[in-house]
Structures are given as structure tokens and as C-alpha cells.
Amino acid sequence: MPLCYNFFMLDTNFIRNNLELVRKKVEAKGVPFAEDRFSAMDLRRRQLLSRSEELKSQKNKLAKETGYLKRSGAPTREMELQSIELSKQIGNGEKELAALEAEFHEFLLSIPNLFHDSVPVGHDAGANEMVREQGDKPVFDFTPRPHWELGENAGTLDFARAAKISGSRFAIYFDGLARLERVLIQFMLDVHTSEHGYREVLPPFLVNDASLIGTGNLPKFKADLFKIEDYNLYLVPTAEVPLTNIHRDETLDEEQLPIKYAAYTPCFRSEAGSHGKDIRGLVRQHQFNKVELLKFTTPDQSYGELEKLTADAEAILRKLGLPFRTVVLCSGDMSFSSAKTYDIEVWMPARADFLEISSCSNFESFQARRAHIKYKGRDGKKDYVHTLNGSGLAIGRTVAAIMENYQTADGRIRIPAALRPYFPGRELL
Predict the structure, then answer these.
(1) Rounded to an integer, what distance in angstroms lies between the CA atom of residue 94 and that of residue 384?
(2) What is the mean pLDDT of residues 155-181?
């Protein structure tokens, strides 16, 4: 296995000793790295810390000497004045250091995680690499319709009335389609808990800024979030945020790992910067449902657990009979926090192309360092856990994929065999 990098959003010692490597990897993610600024702040910070320790040592030594002179009856006025001056210098230094630490902290928060050595280097999705493709694409003797047209024609999807209620990029489901959305949530949770060994969680749907900082959503992606006015609370962009923060500021025992959570939540995203992309249908909504998978592992387990997590997400598509492919993302197409990501893409007949339905990522220790999540090994030593997560799956996109892949010539939707126990006596929605 290639070298795994452990950072605090990134570790300052690692950056200092590997500036060229950090610069190359950060810039390969499409983010500029201000190497000179880092070095200047890092040097000044260490100078201030060293000077502070030196001044405190001088003051402590002076206090001992002053005490000795007082006990012997000798004059101490001059030494007391020296102590006052040292206190002023210490105070001034601490003020400068506090301001610099805040600036340095914000700078470090803006640096993305470094990608794993097995990740292909490239600028965009064109450099992603195919891992596997599975399932037979349906063959129709008619032109397949897009899911939004199928839903609107049947009266089971209503975007116009949703826009009246909430604005664009919202949807109202009716009848069998509303049931399909609900059933898919239960089906996915049933599979992941009973067959894949995840512990089901129902987390809060509102999270504070500390939780979003821990996962890397803040400060960089503030524009993508919906904030509650006058409260330090945000609507969850994904269940990854509350699930990761279950163990914030905790030290786990190695025997507990891997910890595997599965959760359903609605997700809320502003989709900043996505204007004009997938504006029709259920693909890119401000509100959507998702079942999320999340793991806490030891560093030596994490890449094996990433393969298992990806297979768990793929298993849902196999059970539903939906054709899909899995690709490994290149450096320029990865998320801010990820060290390695597999995208699972489902076949959409109306567009004659694949659509992302799950991203499965290993963040190594990047999130754990931000959220202060450690584990104690069997040898008693402490280290940061590795965190992993993936969609298992995005519900709205799964509904869209079922509609398009299982449509009939008359616009009906066949129910996948795996879901028929949830629709007793029915084969069509």
C-alpha cells in the first residue's frame, strides 16, 4: 500500500518538512498553495513561542532571586521594575501570538487534504479511471423518456407546485412514487444493517459550526450551506456531518474499530455554482433524501474498509438490477477533504449516460484531526482514527434511475423484484 499521509488539516511539522510535496499535491487538487505565506507565518509563530518561553524563564528566575533578596533584607526595587517590564513584553508577545495563531489556523483550514498515491493525477473528470462496469443496460423498443417527464405525465411528480411552495429545485411526490421514495430508505437501511453490519443511527438534522468545521464543510464551503438565521445551526448537507461528529473530542479503544454507522437524513444544499447543471428533474435538488454509510477505522484498516464500503453501496444497485460503473476520481475531481474517492455511477437511459449516485471516500486522518477523534491502540499509544463515508445511496437519484430503467412503453414503472415485498401484490407503480 502506498504511503498514507496523516495531517491536521494538515500537520504543521509535515508541511514544514515536505513543502514541495504539499505544494504539488494541493495544486493537483486545483487549489493554490501560498508556500511563502505558510513559511513566514510558521517561522514567526515559532519565534514568538520561543521568545515567550525565554521571557517567562527570565521572569521565573528573577522572581526566585527577588524572593531570596527580600528574605535577606536587601533592596529589590530594581528587580521588581525588571519583572514589570518582562510582564509587559510577555503580554505584548502573547497578543501578537494570539492574532497570528488565529490567522495561521484559518490558513491551515483552507488547505485541502492530500490525495493518496494511488489516485490518478488530472485536472477534471476526464482523467478519472474506470474500475468496473456491471449490469446489463435495458433495451427498449421505444424512445425512453426522462424521469421527470414520466412523473409529470403520471401526476406523481410536481415541480411547478413545489416551486410555488418553496422555489426552484424542489419536488412534490405523490402516490406510488412517494411510497417508492419511502420504501427505498427502508430497503437500503435494512440491507446495510442486516447484511453489511452497520449500526443504524437517526441523527439530528441541524448541526453547529464546530461539526461542519470537523468534516471540512466550513469554512471553505459556507456558500453551499443553509444557515438558520439568528442561530449557530445549519441544515445538514449530508448525514456525514452528524455521524462523524458523534465521536468528536473522544478517544476510542482499538477493539471498538471499525465502527460502522448507517443513517437516513434529508439533505439540504444551496448548490452554489451549479447553475445550469442538471436543472431538470430529481438530480440536483435543494432538498433530497439519502442513506449514508460512515466508518471509523485504524489507519492500517482504512483502505481495505474503503473497498468494502464501496462494495456495500454497489450491492444496493445490484439488488435493484440497475446497471452501474465505478470510477476512481483523479486529483482535480476530488472533494476538499478526501484522500481517495470512488464514484459509483448509475445508467440513465434517457440521457444515454451514467450519473453519479454515490461517492465513497477515505479521508484518512484529515477529519479526525479537525474533530479531535483519536483511538488508543493495544500498546496504549494514541493516534488519530481514519474516517470514511459513502452514499448508500442517494434516494432521489435512485428513484430517477428506477423510473428510467424500468419504464414501459405506456409510461408505467415496473417495480424491481427486490422491492416487491414492500408493494404486496403489485408489479407496477
Answers:
(1) 29
(2) 97
Residue 384, classed as helix, strand or coil, is: strand
48 and 166 housed in the same domain: no
CATH of the domain at 70: 1.10.287.40
Within a domain: 116:
no
Q: Indicate if 209 and 99 belong to the same structural domain.
A: no
Report the alpha-carbon angle 103-104-105, nearest 5: 90
Contact 15, 38 (CB under 8 A): yes
The span from the CA of 67 to the CA of 307, in Å, is 66
Q: Which residues are catalytic?
A: 269, 284, 356, 359, 397
Q: Within this chain, do residues 151 and 200 fall inside the same structural domain, yes or no?
A: yes
Nearest to 7 by CA among 374, 340, 278, 365: 365
Domain that holds residue 162: 125-422
Report the first-to-last Cα separation within the chain, whole angstroms.
47
Does one domain contain both 138 and 81?
no
Cα–Cα distance for residue pair 368/10, rounded to 1 Å: 11
Give the separation between CA 201 and CA 379, rounded to whole angstroms: 31
Are 200 and 348 found together in one domain?
yes
The whole-number average pLDDT for the span 346-352 is 97
Please report whether residue 17 resides in a domain: no
Report how many domains make up the chain: 2
Question: Is 117 domain-assigned?
Answer: no
pLDDT in tens, 306-321: 999 999 999 999 999 9
What pLDDT, in 10s, does the model give residues 351-370? 999 999 999 999 999 999 99
CA distance 229 to 211: 17
CB within 8 A of 342, min separation 6: which ones? 131, 306, 310, 326, 327, 328, 329, 359, 360, 361, 390
Rounded CA-CA distance 222/212 in Å is: 9
Is residue 132 assigned to a domain?
yes
Cell of 371: 474533530
Q: For residue 413, what is its C-alpha cell? A: 414503472
pTM given for the model? 0.89
CATH code, 402: 3.30.930.10
Q: Are residues 170 and 73 in the same domain?
A: no
Place of cell 511563502: 36
* 409 φ/ψ angles, rounded to the nearest 5 degrees: -60, -30
Assess whether 142 and 64 both reside in one domain.
no
Average of per-residue pLDDT values in the chain: 94
Helix orientation angle between 302-320 and 395-405, rounded to the nearest 10 degrees: 40
